[in-house]
Write a structure and sequence with these properties.
alpha+beta, elongated, about 20% helix, four-stranded antiparallel β-sheet, ten-stranded mixed β-sheet
Length: about 300
């Protein structure tokens, strides 16, 4: 299978009649860098099937097509034949359910086996000339939903949506001990721990971070909790729950009990966003993985 080059089409409305293509595309968030690439790296701008330049004045009913040049796949990431659990896919994006134990991108300690390696391999098999544009990331040992853009421009649109809080993720966690509040919000700045390159902590000079939590069930040894983030700091949920005195089960970096599970008991269960091209409201879910579900079933409710 050979994927066609990424393109976007518009039918020009009366409201946009008389605009120069350059002005119209700026309003559609096509960046100046993208226009330069289109001009010099093999893309094209067409109106009613004829190639034009950005100074063309649009008329109502015109069909404007922007064809982007092929991307150069990431040279530093090798493609691997790793199965992907796909929750949704179209020509613009992918939503996958990542298992625990898989890096989102390669690291020095784990140069292979990452989601990025799996994506490069998948793109090679379907003939898609693109780098893996991972919009939302998860820690290696966190399971659940990840959003991937299939093109640089789609990634650009999602990045703007993220800055405006329009990509919403919901998590489930097993937090050690019994949380007495039914719900609450942690607003504590997070920064890197001075003596560590990995560990984070709540500290006055850190970046603003906000986590909302709600109790689902209270068990004898832990609290089954739902969480939503207003910010996306590294290890945010793990740091904030540890700060509350309820580190996640299995999270040895932040003081969690490791007797029941050998990874932090954290799962991204839902993502919600408006599709940047169709305008459809997207809500996708990933069920709780077996290791967390078995702990829930084994420990009695309070």
């Amino acid at each position: 299978m050979t994927a066609s080059r990424f393109q976007i089409n518009w039918v020009i409305s009366q409201d946009d009649a008389g605009k120069l293509i350059k002005e119209f595309l700026k309003n559609e968030e096509i960046s100046r860098t993208a226009l330069t690439d289109i001009k010099f790296k093999g893309g094209s701008i067409q109106v009613n099937g004829e190639e034009v330049n950005v100074r063309y004045k649009l008329a109502a009913g015109d069909v404007l097509r922007v064809v982007f040049p092929d991307e150069i796949p990431s040279e530093g990431v090798s493609g691997e034949d790793i199965p992907l659990k796909v929750l949704f896919e179209d020509e613009y994006l992918l939503v996958v359910n990542k298992p625990a134990g898989m890096n989102t991108i390669p690291s020095r300690e784990h140069p292979t086996g990452s989601l990025a390696n799996a994506l490069v391999g998948y793109y090679q098999r379907i003939g898609l000339q693109a780098a893996p544009h991972i919009v939302t990331r998860l820690d290696r040992d966190t399971s659940g939903i990840l959003l991937i853009a299939k093109h640089r421009h789609v990634h650009h649109l999602f990045s703007m949506m993220q800055r405006e809080g329009q990509v919403k993720r919901t998590y489930e966690a097993l937090a050690g001990g019994v949380i007495s509040q039914d719900f609450g919000t942690v607003r504590e700045p997070i920064g890197r721990k001075q003596e560590s390159i990995i560990e984070r902590e709540v500290r006055d000079d850190g970046q603003y971070a906000c986590t909302h939590f709600q109790v689902i069930e209270r068990h004898r040894l832990f609290t089954y909790t739902e969480l939503q983030l207003e910010t996306g700091r590294t290890h945010q949920i793990r740091v904030h729950m540890s700060f509350l005195g309820h580190p996640l089960l299995g999270d040895d970096l932040y003081g969690g009990d490791v007797s029941l599970i050998d990874r932090q008991a954290l799962h991204c269960k839902k993502i919600q966003f408006t599709h940047p091209f169709s305008g459809e409201e997207m809500i996708l879910r990933a069920t709780l993985p077996t290791d967390m579900r078995e702990i829930l079933e084994a420990d009695p409710l309070l």
